[in-house]
Every structure is written in structure tokens, then in C-alpha cells.
Design brief:
Helix content is 85%, strand content 0%. It has 5 helices and no strands. It has helices at 2-29, 37-45, 47-55, 60-70, 74-109. Helix 1 (2-29) packs across helix 5 (74-109) and helix 2 crosses helix 3. The chain starts with a helix and ends with a helix.
């Protein structure tokens, strides 16, 4: 029984860190600084943004590297990551509770 708990715990931790990594990369990729995808989304929504991005294209990679090195993006990205992960966790727990509740109700019917 102990080794089964250990495997279940290890799998739960693995899945949690996989989710954290995926959400972190997804949020990071939506930053509206070229070459990240957020800049493509913003330039499709705004002609003015597209013009600014195209005019300053040679400098955006340097801007992104400087922002990453300086740590300016750490706090906002952490806040967004935590909000997304919290929402995901709440949705999963609610879904699992609903499934367990529905399963218990169905077992009484049968």
C-alpha cells in the first residue's frame, strides 16, 4: 500500500509541474513583444501596433532579452501564472466533484 501511495504522489507531482510549465510557457508566449506570439495577435488587432512592430523590428529581440535579464517580467508573469493555475485547479476540482457526485447518484439508481 505504501509504494502505491508513493507512485500516486509522484504522478500527481509530475502532472502538477507539467501543468505549471505549460501554463508558464503559454503566458510567456502571449507577451506582446516580437518574436513572441502575443505580438502577432496584437498586430492583427491593431494596425497601429503592426506599424510600430514593423518599424522597430530589428530591436525587439534586444528589448525582450533586456526585459528577461532585468527581471521586469517576473512579477507580472508570476501573478498571471498563479491566477491561471488557480482557475485550472478550481475547475478540475469542481469537475471531479461533479463526476463523483453524479457517479454516487447513478449508483443509487442502478
Amino acid at each position: 500500500v505504501g509504494s502505491e501511495m508513493c507512485i500516486e504522489t509522484a504522478l500527481a507531482v509530475l502532472f502538477w509541474y507539467s501543468a505549471v510549465l505549460n501554463v508558464g510557457l503559454g503566458v510567456f508566449n502571449l507577451i506582446p513583444i516580437p518574436p513572441l506570439d502575443g505580438s502577432h495577435v496584437l498586430s492583427e488587432l491593431s494596425d497601429k501596433a503592426a506599424e510600430i512592430y514593423n518599424r522597430n523590428r530589428p530591436y525587439w529581440s534586444i528589448v525582450l532579452i533586456l526585459l528577461l535579464i532585468s527581471g521586469v517580467l517576473s512579477r507580472p508573469l508570476t501573478i498571471i501564472d498563479n491566477a491561471v493555475l488557480s482557475g485550472m485547479q478550481t475547475a478540475i476540482f469542481n469537475l471531479l466533484s461533479l463526476l463523483v457526485h453524479t457517479g454516487n447518484a447513478m449508483s443509487g439508481v442502478l
